[in-house]
Automatic annotation (TrEMBL), chains A, B:
Keywords: Amino-acid biosynthesis, Cytoplasm, Glycosyltransferase, Histidine biosynthesis, Transferase. Belongs to the class-II aminoacyl-tRNA synthetase family. HisZ subfamily. This is ATP phosphoribosyltransferase regulatory subunit. Pathway: Amino-acid biosynthesis; L-histidine biosynthesis; L-histidine from 5-phospho-alpha-D-ribose 1-diphosphate: step 1/9. GO terms for molecular function: glycosyltransferase activity. The keyword Cytoplasm applies. Heteromultimer composed of HisG and HisZ subunits. Gene3D superfamilies: Bira Bifunctional Protein, Domain 2. Transmembrane segments: none annotated. It comes from the Bacteria. The lineage of its organism: Bacteria, Pseudomonadati, Pseudomonadota, Alphaproteobacteria, Acetobacterales.
Amino acid sequence: MTDPASPSAPPAGLLPAGLMDLLPPEAEREASLVEALMAGFASHGYERVKPPLLEFEDSLLAGSGAAVAEQTFRLMDPVSQRMMGLRADTTPQVARIAATRLGLEARPLRLCYAGQVLRVRGSQLAPERQMPQAGIELIGSASPEADAEVAAVAAAALAAVGVAPISLDITLPTMTPTLLEGSGLPVERRQALAHALDRKDAAMVAALSAEAGALAECLPSLLAAAGPADAALAALAAAPLPQAAREIADNAAAVIAAIRARAPGLRLTLDPAEFRGFRYHVGVAFTLYGPGRSGELARGGRYLSLNDEPATGMTLYPDAVLRAAPPAAPRPRLFLPQGTPEAVAAGFRAQGFATIAALSPTDAPRALRCTHILRDGQAVPLPKE
Amino acid sequence: MTDPASPSAPPAGLLPAGLMDLLPPEAEREASLVEALMAGFASHGYERVKPPLLEFEDSLLAGSGAAVAEQTFRLMDPVSQRMMGLRADTTPQVARIAATRLGLEARPLRLCYAGQVLRVRGSQLAPERQMPQAGIELIGSASPEADAEVAAVAAAALAAVGVAPISLDITLPTMTPTLLEGSGLPVERRQALAHALDRKDAAMVAALSAEAGALAECLPSLLAAAGPADAALAALAAAPLPQAAREIADNAAAVIAAIRARAPGLRLTLDPAEFRGFRYHVGVAFTLYGPGRSGELARGGRYLSLNDEPATGMTLYPDAVLRAAPPAAPRPRLFLPQGTPEAVAAGFRAQGFATIAALSPTDAPRALRCTHILRDGQAVPLPKE
């Protein structure tokens, strides 16, 4: 224990940077949102798994887990004398379960999960080091319909908790690398182009690709096409894409058509030149946005699961969903004077009241934030002070 | 990363001892039980807080946290260069919140929580190293009614998820130490008596207390009194207790009377000589048992919170509740052939079906464990194979 008087000791109750308490009523709201999202997933056949918070780092950081290796807290297991990691992402754990304990289940396998993840450092924009996640993984199908399903199911779950309107941003992380690699340009020029594309510097992209044949026609138009999905698909269709890139474009068109069939009301944008995001995405990648400035609510996309099994999934961020969702109506609180019969109290709870039982004659209904008080068997509203 | 071919590498997918995956359908059942327990707590005015999984060890291990210090995983925070702990119990965190961020809220303060705890080592009987907890803390009331409330609310929450019958075992962890300390016996004799009481060795207790005045009358009768609460209270009433012990007995009688008023159907036992359990209990201590051999479902009791504020609480063990609760009816799974209109699918989800959309013509309803298939707009049961 640290001497609390020592100068380096934090004030009592101080928490490490990026770790925080969720207080009433936010903690209950977040939990309710998570369970509502999970109920939405379950209604589409996604079955819940609950991997442990800690596991051996060599399984935790395999596959897509490598992307979060640097952000993973590690600690020694005194039982096995092996290193364990505290999960920074749940998808690698679900991939492990799908490949091992559920390896013999029929495909496509639909799994969902909810829980906390931790990371070693926050960023300036996202200082949190513990975050809730709730997500779905659809494993064993390579079809565009599978990508469309995870997008539609995630959007429907958000809509069910009152987040509207939702827009889905689709990117094709393999498109730009495929075009650059097939361009025949020297490595330095490709890197410069990638850098310019990353900054969306249209003039520089045009200059750098000017003498690169088909690329000179493709890249500027793809960069300009970012926006509503139909216009972006039209730009892709018109661009003189080499075969490998054409297949990526055709797949994007198929995914978008399948999403339209599953989620007709969803607003879709496509940014065909964007290639940032998790390194492990091998097909479409998704970001779901809520209204106004609520920011990213979910990310996902297609990846290769363990044993190179095709997979697609979506991770929702309940802390962001909490900020985007409409506030819940507060629960009315009924003060029960001492001696209230239990059956009477139970009756009011069944009506939706939280009952606050007086434990002594000095318990004060207003101070305890009660909205009602029991008088003559009736829940009488307490006027606000 | 460990070389997977090295002889010390675990097989792929192996988890550390005591850490496990919860699979379908258990993961969903456990989550549903936790939320049902939390809904019960909320209906009695307990408001949810969510402390982080990690915090500085000097706050995590303060107060009642000292009892789990040896079981707490520690890791270095690279941001602050200070040691953090991975919580092994949630009560110390709730105490911190009550004393700091909710320090100015009116008392009694009712808080509840649900989440995971981790411990360094499992035991032979309880090998788990990650366990769910769901609990309530009632802070700022010293009255027997407060102890009765946490017992009654916990029992009601268990009853609401179908666990019946429930019995509440009450112990008085301060009774035996109080009697021994006031006995005037030499330290060695007191230690021998404590040891004999711990083993419930009635003959040895009688022999060791034979010449110890009032103790010779008290201890054997208290040891024998363990059982239904009324008989045990009668034995306490008849025993020639010194003043300090008499106050403990009177408080136990008051708590039991208050529990009877709040939870008339609850089966109560009292073991007045038992003094094992968490070191920090300063009044009654509780253990809730389910039917048959389902074991301990919850533990709790009265303690001193930070700043010596009186407090009482109960921690439920959802993994044990899961084993004691009746199984839930499985959700019917309806297979939707490709091209099923979204509105039709939504209608069946609203009826309680999980809808399993075919993603390709080869998706097989039986292999996907569907119970029904959509034919001519109807959910047709699939006969079992």
